[in-house]
Amino acid sequence: MGVKIRKPLDKDIYKDGGIFKKIFEREKWENPKDHDEVLVKYEASLEDGALVSKVDEAKAIKTMKKGEKVLLIVKPQYAFGENGRPASGGEGVVPPNATLLIEL
After folding, report:
1. Is the separation of the CB atoms in 11 and 21 below 8 Å?
2. What are the residue boundaries of the PPIase FKBP-type domain, all occurrences included (predicted)?
3. All structural domains of the chain
């Protein structure tokens, strides 16, 4: 059960096709600034729906507005790359060269 990726998506974060942002709910608030405190709830999964859980890409957060709900499509070079990640501590395995889908 994968998510079909259709271009153009709402925003290409790095402008190289590595991380896309699809906005589900748009808000009119300002974007957070450096050193602002934000609370983020997220869900990260593989394209096949397998749940994983890691997000450390602050650049994507800075493009969001308060209350906005988005889907980030994170290509392997910005996720776990060619090595992937073994399952550990209740988190799922991420295969090599996997694209992540992160709901924020």
Report:
1. yes
2. 1-104
3. 11-103 (3.10.50.40)
Which tokens belong to 28? 């009119």
Q: Give the β-pairing of 69-74 and 51-52.
A: unpaired
**Tokens 């590595």, located at residue:** 18
- pLDDT tens figures, 14-56: 889 898 888 877 778 788 888 887 766 677 888 898 888 655 5
The answer to whether 92 and 52 are in contact (CB under 8 A) is yes
Three-state DSSP class for 72? strand
Its pTM stands at: 0.60
| Beta carbons of 102 and 43 less than 8 angstroms apart | yes
